[in-house]
Design brief:
It is built from 14 helices and 7 strands. The protein is α/β, with parallel strands linked by helices and about 325 residues long. The structure holds S-adenosylmethionine (SAM).
């Protein structure tokens, strides 16, 4: 998934830093990914640590993590369900077609008509199976995760769901194929939450706390609202041209509130090693972060400079690369 702030490309840097600070053998450690997004960090640590605790307050993210992290046992027949769902007849009275496809008269075009109707048919069938007891909770989240990932590949957007494209683009015109969202099978139990990180932190404890909050004012609930609709699939009144639904506003996305939230998170954390990802373009400055973290133990930071191509047209035209510095702020907390 093309996700704002995804740490996919920064995984080697994160892994190396954590091994430097904590040690190479992480097999008995409890690792918490507190702002988990796509789950890519939790996925990388799942085979290395004793337990992953994963959290993100967005429902779509919970679905991804509940599958990729929470599911850890083999599930017989899961591919058969995928095959069945792939040949379901489309329906034209579902939420996605009604609110996000042009043919329904919604005025929006996040998906082609055919794909919108197919998403509705699959989503409804998954719910029916779950409610009737045909499938387990683990299977439910595996199938939902498969649907979210597959639908996202057919979205008619430039990247996020803040707007849709006027014309159907090439990838959005292709028929949606439900692909299996395979997860790593291992013999360890993991935990997945869907809560405000500042509340959850008061109830959990462990060894390594990885923090990757939003850096800027872009709210995830607004940028991925369509995925929340597929995940929740309950009636709602879409607002305005983009069909936005109500969404959570994170205190990490405002200059006025970010430092206070960050400090209370650090203060409440019952973890010895706390690692924060942040870049040089974020709402908190490096000295701000250092000042807060230093109050609670030994602080250090590691940096990585990389070239990032900006998605805005002007810079693309000039093939201009932007140098971004990604920081890992490390606190060894006195607990
Ligand atoms: C930078 S992204 C994380 C990206 C993730 N590490 C990845 O690689 O996919 C920040 C995440 O924080 C979540 N978030 C923002 N405020 C939150 C809060 N108060 N509690 C829990 N999650 C929050 C957002 O939904 C978003 O997924």
């Amino acid at each position: 998934m093309n996700y704002i702030g995804s740490k996919h490309t920064l995984l080697p840097f994160l892994l190396k830093t954590i091994e430097n600070v904590v040690g190479e053998d992480l097999s008995d450690k409890v690792f918490c990914d507190c702002f988990a997004g796509t789950g890519v960090v939790g996925k990388a640590f799942k085979p290395l640590v004793g337990k992953v605790i994963s959290n993100d307050w967005e429902r779509y993210s919970y679905v991804l993590n509940r599958n990729y992290i929470g599911n850890h046992l083999e599930m017989a027949g899961k591919e058969d369900y995928i095959s069945y769902l792939n040949v379901l007849p489309a329906v034209d009275d579902g939420l996605i077609y009604a609110h996000y496809c042009k043919g329904s008269g919604s005025g929006r075009q996040y998906f082609s008509d055919e794909n919108g109707k197919k998403i509705d048919a699959i989503r409804r069938q998954i719910e029916d199976w779950y409610v009737s007891g045909e499938i387990s909770e683990n299977m439910y989240f595996y199938l939902l995760c498969s649907l979210l990932e597959s639908a996202d590949k057919r979205a008619n957007t430039a990247s996020v769901y803040g707007a849709f494209l006027k014309e159907i683009k090439r990838t959005a015109a292709k028929p949606l194929v439900l692909e299996s969202a395979d997860y790593l099978v291992n013999d360890k139990e993991h935990e997945v939450f869907c809560e405000d990180a500042n509340l959850l932190i008061k109830r959990i404890s462990g060894d390594i706390l990885y923090l990757d909050p939003p850096y800027n004012s872009r709210q995830y609930g607004a940028n991925y609202h369509v995925l929340n609709t597929i995940a929740e699939y309950r009636p709602f009144v879409p607002k305005g041209k983009t069909g936005l639904r109500d969404y959570f506003r994170s205190s990490y996305c405002s200059k006025l509130t970010v430092l206070e939230s960050f400090e209370s998170l650090i203060q409440d954390a019952q973890f010895k090693f706390i690692i924060l990802s942040y870049n040089n373009e974020g709402l908190m400055s490096q000295p701000d972060i250092e000042r807060v973290m230093k109050k609670y133990g030994d602080y250090d930071f590691y940096s990585l400079q990389y070239q990032r191509f900006r998605a805005d047209k002007e810079e693309k035209r000039n093939h201009h690369a932007n140098r971004t510095t990604e920081y890992l702020h490390v606190l060894i907390k006195n607990i």
